Amino acid sequence: MAAERNVLSFSMTSENSSTAAEASPIESEKSAKTVHHRNHPHYHTHHYSIKHRK
């Protein structure tokens, strides 16, 4: 629970700095993933844990 809250707070701060996201393609890709994470939090975390467990 605490780890997930840290990820959510980090995604909020990264969204506020849109100029940094535009400057770096990697940052823009991260912001796109955070949007998906916010829309499907349970599915994304479940899928992520399974993918890295193997």
UniProtKB/TrEMBL annotation:
Bias (Basic residues): 33-54
Region annotation (Disordered) ranges: 1-54
Record field: compositional bias (Low complexity): 11-24
Name of the protein in question: Uncharacterized protein
UniProt organism field: Amorphotheca resinae ATCC 22711
